[in-house]
Amino acid sequence: MSLAQFIDHTILKNTTTIADVDKICEEAVHHSFAAVCVPPYFVSDARKLLENSAVKVATVIGFPFGYHHYKTKLEETNIAIEEGADELDVVMNIAAFKSNDLAYVETEIGVLSKLTSDKSKTLKVIIESGVLSDEEIVRCCEIYQHYPVQFLKTSTGFGGEGASVHAVQLMRKHLPASIQIKASGGIRTAEFAQQLIDAGATRLGCSAGVAIVKGESGSGNY
Q1: Residue 220: its pLDDT value, please?
Q2: Is 98 an active-site residue?
Q3: Band of residue 160 on the pLDDT scale cut at 50, 70, 90
Q4: Quick one: pLDDT at residue 218?
Q5: Which one, of 156, 205, 147, 206, lies nearest residue 179 by Cα?
């Protein structure tokens, strides 16, 4: 597979415009990226722009801090699906996790994964590995492997350290083969992208996707 097929071409800045979304959708089609990842506000626009292509529409839920009530995330997810999202990148409730309220974390993933499973959508759970210890990353893997989750994702790109080879390797070691890994945050070169793939990532969230596939260095946090 080419690097392009691993990439979720991403734009999640709060200053994103429809012109930006139009541009990344055009680039995603041209380079055959796996998906575009856009703010919820632009899901319906991206759906229209990509309706005749194989590129998936992804968006974020509970972004970027994850401490929204799970009922809010459920409504966000439902709206995103109604507006045409194929894939949902959901930030876990890190505050609940850090408070050792694992019952809440499990309730959250239970209701969200039921919705995405019922609607045959792809669910990616963002654990924000850069603010977790190795032991906490392993605990996340232990929790989420019991639910119909398609991906665990390293980072939002907006908090703590972004993607790391170490985190991807650790996640791959402690997840079943049925759950894939998406690495995201700070991926700006083809070399780093390949290192993450070699470590076990099967999807990469990048705002520098075009530069990466051209073998150049990109800019941007995400």
Answers
A1: 54
A2: no
A3: confident
A4: 63
A5: 147
Using alpha carbons, list the distances in angstroms from residue 52 to 35, 47, 95: 13, 9, 40
Question: SS3 of 41, please?
Answer: helix
**Catalytic residue, candidates 153, 173, 198, 214:** 153
User: Among the options 56, 121, 124, 182, which is catalytic?
Assistant: 182
- Is 23 tagged catalytic? no
Per-residue confidence (pLDDT) for residue 1, from 0 to 100: 73
- Catalytic residue flag (residue 89): yes
What ranges in the chain are assigned the alpha helix state H? 18-31, 43-49, 70-82, 94-98, 102-118, 134-144, 165-174, 190-199, 209-213
Residue with tokens 């949902």: 88
**Tokens representing residue 71 in the block:** 């009922």
Which one is catalytic: 86, 89, 121, 124?
Answer: 89
Domains annotated for the chain, with CATH where assigned, are 3-213 (3.20.20.70)
What is the arithmetic mean of pLDDT over 170-198? 97
Residues 199, 211: Cα–Cα separation, whole Å:
21
